[in-house]
């Protein structure tokens, strides 16, 4: 079963969950129980049809902050 990274739109908490695709809609923030969570696209999780796995983060934001 794959893992998915999410970020809470409510409190900004980032977390990883282990769920099936059909359960992704039911993911809630473990910090504030908000349902307003956004899935983060990570590494090789998604193949767009011929491309490298180590794509740079489009929006950045992984370093620092918090
Ligand atoms: Zn939250």
UniProtKB/TrEMBL annotation:
Residues 1-42 form the Putative regulatory protein FmdB zinc ribbon domain. Gene3D superfamilies: RNA polymerase ii, chain L (2.20.28.30). Pfam families: Zn_ribbon_8. InterPro entries: Regulatory_FmdB_Zinc_ribbon. SMART domains: CxxC_CXXC_SSSS. The lineage of its organism: Bacteria, Bacillati, Bacillota, Clostridia, Eubacteriales. This is Putative regulatory protein, FmdB family.
